[in-house]
Amino acid sequence: MTFGRLERTPGPQPMSEINMTPLIDVMLVLVVIFIITAPLLVSAVKVDLPNTPGAMALSAPRFLSLTIDRSGKVYLDDRLLGLTELGAALRIAARLQPDTEVRLRADAAVAYGRVVEVMGLTHQAGLHRIGFVAERVPAGK
């Protein structure tokens, strides 16, 4: 009598090999971490610095504010000056402190030639650090 097969089909066999992909991923992450942190550890030299009153930070650098209004008039620290007076004041400032910064604020309607003329006076006086002041444009515009 034959009712059917009595043989069993073999089920899935257990894996006898290790999956290397996760192991390699973890090792590569560790290598990247060591590559990034190794230079930080080598260059950190511990030094106990001595205390001295001469090591105080200097005061903030001095600056002059030059403003040119819409009509072309020049103001030095909110004082209206002519070009000859401005040149003399800039020369005095350069003698007193040669590394003085000049912060130039010019109206958008001022002619380019007037701005260059004022810049030329600052260079003739011996002040060569000129910064241009502008307003920030809002992010949405």
Describe this structure as you would to a colleague.
The chain has 141 residues and is of the alpha/beta class. It has a domain at 60-132: Nucleotidyltransferase, domain 5 (2-Layer Sandwich), CATH 3.30.420.270. The protein is 36% helix and 16% strand. The protein has 3 helices and 5 strands, in the order αβββαβαβ. It has helices spanning 21-43, 83-96, 112-125; strands at residues 63-68, 74-76, 79-81, 101-106, 129-132. It has a 5-stranded mixed sheet with strand order 3-2-1-4-5. Helix 2 (83-96) packs parallel to helix 3 (112-125). The longest helix has 23 residues, at 21-43. The protein is elongated and about 120 Å long. The model has no long low-confidence stretch (mean pLDDT 81).
The SS-based structural class is alpha/beta
Distance between the termini: 92 Å
Spans of at least 5 consecutive residues whose pLDDT stays below 50 are none
The Cα radius of gyration reads 37 Å
User: How would you write the strand order of the largest sheet?
Assistant: 3-2-1-4-5
Number of DSSP E strands: 5
Summarize the biggest pleated sheet.
5 strands, mixed
Q: Give the H and E element order.
A: HEEEHEHE
Mean pLDDT across all amino acids: 81
Shape: elongated
**How big a fraction of the residues is strand?**
15-25%
Number of DSSP helical runs:
3
CATH level 3 topology of the domain at 60-132: Nucleotidyltransferase, domain 5
Q: Which bin fits the share of residues in helices?
A: 25-40%
Specify the CATH class of the domain at 60-132.
Answer: Alpha Beta
CATH architecture of the domain at 60-132: 2-Layer Sandwich
